[in-house]
Amino acid sequence: MKIALGAASLALALGAMATTVAPATAAEATGTKSAGSSELKTADVSFRTSDGLTLGGRIFEPANATGRLPGLLLVHGSGQGNKWSELQMEAEEFAKQGMVVLAPDKRSVGYSKMKRDYSQLADDALKAFAVLRDRPEVDPAKAGVWGLSEGGWVAPIAVTRTSDIKFLITVGGPGLEPLRSQAWNMANKVDRAGIEGSVRTLLNESFYRLGADAGLFPEAHYDPAPTLKKIHQPVLALWGTEDNQIPPAESAEIFRKTFPGSVTVRFFPHAPHALWAAGREKAEELVPGYAETVGSWVRDVTGGHVPASSADPLPAQPTRSVPLPESAWWEGWQAQLIVLVLLLVAFATYPVAALVRRRRGGDGGSWSNRVLATSGLVGVPLFVYADVSMIGSANGHGIDLGPLIAGRPILWLVVQLLAFTTLISTAVSATRWRTARLREWMLIAGGLLFIPWALYWGQLLP
After folding, report:
1. Which class for 255: exposed (0-12), middle (13-18), buried (19 or more C-beta within 10 A)?
2. CA distances in angstroms from 120 to 18, 28, 131, 154, 345, listed in the order given
3. What are the DSSP calls for 396-416, one per residue?
4. What is its EC number (predicted)?
5. How do strand 69-75 and strand 54-62 relate by DSSP bridges?
6. 3-class secondary structure, 234
7. Nearest to 412, CA basis, from 212, 193, 214
């Protein structure tokens, strides 16, 4: 079962982890290239992480600027081994606002979808920031960090570790723990798909909690609030009102209440999570006004005019996130694995014993016992398969579970039909418990154990 859970969690998790091996070294420029615009010039750089990885990146800056300029390091959102080019649009647009911008590569070694370490990613960001700050065209007293999505968890950690970072910008910054945010993300997907009933709870709550308990969801219960409370540098926090990956209104509420210093909260109407005009995979430009807002705010902050805290009105957020507490012992993956094994053994013992009896000339058992054994043996593995396949069908765009009947996927309705068949046949078989033999006792016990298990997982609920 843990292998199956791992496969499902691979489609859900966000993150990365690696061990410390060697100290960082200074980065060096490797060349100068055109950014495809006469307004900008670029230079390739490299830097070493604390565990000895060499990562690349690209510097973007105004072509005809004079004097030292503000610097801005970009911190990626989730993903393994993201290249600097994934942030090229932001880097170019921010550089046109009069900044020297570093878009770095993100680590791939030691980074997987089931493991991540925000502290290590923050350390990577600090190594890249040192490269930016040491550039001769950057004013080291005017250098800051920008973080997108997962970078909204990572960048604040980096900010708390050095006074060299003078300001922080977040886009789609999460104010809640990753597990809760991801469950809200899934809730949006199933709601857009029209999925209703107990399968909705299974997909956006129960399975996430089990995956986190099994250690398959990275940094599941990381609380960003203690880190945010330590940041006294000015903060610009931006969200799109149509963000369906991070709860924008809830995150903004937390940012406003938690940051002790100047915090400016802005929302862009009808804009998605990354503030690309039509979504990151289709758009070729940022949301109108986004780059200008960043540029104007950075000029004010680095010019000594730190704004007083302010916030746009919170957008309507149709669905509120739900806290997902850690699993009780009986909900944990070990207990669930034991129950799964017991159910399979109980349901499999009866037909094996019945086959032996028939070969010896005995009867094959009552119809209710045969139905109970069959529905249990088919239904339990089918439930596991259904969970994995349904979770695995989710992607960045949504979730597609095929045709729905009354808001329920057909596969889930088959699971429920088998569960109710198991329930009824258990009740019938249990009426003959006084005359039951050992193999029948084991079968009835399996059916009785199945009932609370199936209720917990929603198989016997509407």
Report:
1. buried
2. 7, 22, 17, 9, 44
3. SS-B----EETTEEHHHHHHH
4. 3.4.-.-
5. unpaired
6. coil
7. 193
In this structure, the dihedral spanned by the alpha carbons of residues 199, 203, 204 and 205, taken in order and rounded to 10 degrees, is 80
Low-confidence ranges of the chain (pLDDT < 50): 1-36
Look-up: residue for tokens 């680095």?
302
Q: Which two tokens stand for residue 187?
A: 């809730």
How far, in Å, CA of 391 to CA of 405, rounded?
19
Element containing residue 300 per DSSP (H, E):
helix 290-302
Confidence (pTM): 0.86
The answer to whether 298 and 72 have CB atoms below 8 angstroms apart is yes
Contact (Cβ atoms closer than 8 angstroms) between residue 55 and residue 105: yes
Q: CA-CA-CA-CA torsion for 375, 379, 382, 387, nearest 10 degrees?
A: 160
Beta strand 54-62 pairing with 100-104: antiparallel
Tally of CB atoms within 10 A around 85: 11
Distance CA 216, CA 2 (A): 9
For every residue of 180-204, DSSP letters joined together read HHHHHHHHHHHHHTT--THHHHIII
| pLDDT tens-digit map of 235-284 | 999 999 999 999 999 999 999 999 999 999 999 999 999 999 875 555 57
Q: How many CA atoms lie within 13 A of 293 on its CB side?
A: 19
What CA–CA distance (Å, rounded) separates 206 from 390? 13
* Alpha-carbon span 96 to 179, nearest angstrom: 37
What pairing do the DSSP bridges indicate for beta strands 54-62 and 404-405?
unpaired
- Give me the pLDDT at residue 389, please: 94
Report CA-CA distances (Å) from 155 to 119, 128, 159.
10, 12, 6
Sheet with strand 138-148: strands edge to edge: 28-34, 40-48, 54-62, 100-104, 69-75, 138-148, 168-171, 235-240, 263-268, 310-311
Domains and CATH numbers, the chain: 2-177+222-311 (3.40.50.1820), 333-456 (no CATH)
Q: DSSP letter for 286, please.
A: B
Q: Which residue has the tokens 């900010």?
A: 159
Distance CA 306, CA 190 (A): 42
